[in-house]
Write a structure and sequence with these properties.
This is Fpg/Nei family DNA glycosylase. Keywords: DNA damage, DNA repair, DNA-binding, Glycosidase, Hydrolase, Lyase, Metal-binding, Multifunctional enzyme, Zinc, Zinc-finger. Its cofactor is Zn(2+). Belongs to the FPG family. The protein is an alpha+beta fold and 288 residues long. It has 2 domains: 135 residues, N-terminal domain of MutM-like DNA repair proteins, CATH 3.20.190.10; 139 residues, Helicase, Ruva Protein, domain 3, CATH 1.10.8. Helices cover 29% and strands 20% of the residues. Strands 1-6-7-5 form a 4-stranded antiparallel sheet, with no helix packed on it. Strands 2-3-4-8 form a 4-stranded antiparallel sheet, with helices on one face. A two-stranded antiparallel sheet has the order 9-10. Strand 3 and strand 4 form a beta hairpin. Helix 1 packs parallel to helix 6, helix 3 crosses helix 6 and helix 5 crosses helix 6.
Amino acid sequence: MPELPEIEALAQFLREHATGAVVGRIDVAALSAVKTFEPPITALSGRDVTGAGRFGKFLGLECGGLWLLTHLSRGGWLRWIDEPSPAPPKPGKGPLALRVHFFTPAGATPAFDLTEAGTKKRLAVYVVDDPQLVPGIARLGPDALALTEAEFGAILHGTSQRIKSAIVDQTLLAGIGNAYSDEILHTAKVSPFANTKTLPDAKTGELYAAMRAVLTDAVRRSVGQDAARLKGEKRSGMRVHARTGEPCPVCGDTVREVSYVDRSFQYCPTCQTGGRILADRRMSRLLK
């Protein structure tokens, strides 16, 4: 799933490549992806692109008073096309959900596709005149990179739950997902199962510093990359996430995994849990 660094990079990519262009035809290949109906998505056609932005893990394109907003969910992505096919795509065929065509001041006619891999189709598209009209945006907590250390500590200590759950809760903290939470916790040497309420102030400060370092480094590496290369850039920077069975680059211990029905996370026992192996819910069920 694209998280804060990738969405920030995509927003910057759109600012550089789409701002100043005029929205042309919009092809909807997956009607279920469009979650708003008034104004219609066709209302974007003919409007000037005036900017792009990020709202947590939502990506927005500003088009002359209207916003085209999307949440890419787990399998979604944006693909820029310099020379798209003039023929409209066939609805329901392949991963394409939406294609937006542009006319640039230089006379080019590029487009971008919103695509979604996998069978669970959760990519969502909204057309609104105010981003706060999108329920998911209205519920967002403060942005992870806009917090002071004191604000961060107040958020964590104001709830009582596992730290892994807290920092991916978008109503508490916007922008962090499963991958970067693994990296942040590993950098701070905090167990994913540590409780927010009992986390010492000193460790909370270390966690805040790790969050800032991991996210700002990822943004730095991602912004300026071609949209097609962002996924690879994200994977290359991961030390524990999606690296189950590999040696931890800090201590050499084996990276472990805890699995749930539709997700998993990774951690290093030596760095984060004092050597203790956390219960893997999937294996626990098999052993009963």
